[in-house]
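tool=predict chain=A
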Amino acid sequence: MIYLDNAASTQIHREVLDAMLPYLQELYGNPSSIHRYGRLAHKAIEKARKQVADLINADPSEIFFTSGGTESNNTALCGIALKNHGLQLITSAIEHDAILEPCKKLEKSGFDVVYLPVDEFGSVDPQILKNKIPEKTCLVSIMFGNNEVGTIQPIEEIGLICNENNVPFHTDAVQAIGKIPIDVKKLGVSMLSISSHKINGPKGIGALFIKHGLAINPVILGGGQERGLRSGTENVANIVGFGKACEIAKSNLDKNILSLKNLRDYLVKRVLAEIPYVTLNGHPENRLSNNAHFTFLGVNGEDLIIKLDEHGIAASTGSACSVHTQKASHVLQAMGFSHEQITGSLRLTVGMFNTIDEIDETVNVLKKIVTELRSFSPFKEKYSFT
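tool=predict ok
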């Protein structure tokens, strides 16, 4: 298999698995217990907390472990909402469903939610945000890098606007982590969500950064773990794996980003040069280093995925989290895409284990598949496919 769906999930790193195994076997104590088994588990969690914090230049006490990006996002939005009933929340039209669905629920409970538009590249205009922030705004939540088209938002500029207006600012950085340097102090964010399985760590574990001084209400109640914010016995092995994945990501961050970008750029160059009637979606430059999102006119994206899979190549049309809903991409709709453009979309995302030979094989297969599918496309006369 050639795996080019790294935005959906990544292969776990061998060093991450090795770090986890002891906490699945002999070091299985509950970290809330005061005996030696419990103390060792607790110590491992605190080490991982520092590893996560180091990746984003945070203080370890500002890191709260969750079950993943979705829970982190829900905790950020609902935790603020529980303290500010009936006020306004500002987000964008292209957020992940883990932001949009909580927003819909908050609207039903009396919140005013403003959805900022985006341009044809999927970028938010900070000036529009600046004009939309009234005194009753209790939170701004804008994603760092889009999970479908890869566009990176002007997070630092948005953070400055929010800080000038004394409004907490949350960013969903699940796709951005490990693909771009992130410094929470420089960015001026109040909260930031990240997930382990996007950076070669295990699934089912993530974190929420909460800046010192910002108080939010807990969403999951119980025994008071994670300093009262997120109750429930900690998933020690996954937390350890997450910490190790962050350590690996930080150790060669610039080198890894450059490697991803080189693979991605090579892929984009070949596809655009060798396959006609193809466009690259998202911002041409200000995009995540591993993301390539295309529209192949006259071809159905799901047909492309099925055909690629038959050739041993894994790809997607967009968010893996919403694939079963069978709905058109709200991201591409917000960017002004036509139905034809949306249905012809394909997302290819590279990872640390991909090679140039795999990219060559993928493009060669893609050329044959697109030609085949276009031969019986209802649009073949419109575009004169040959």
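The CA atoms of residues 6 and 349 lie 5 Å apart. The mean pLDDT is 94.
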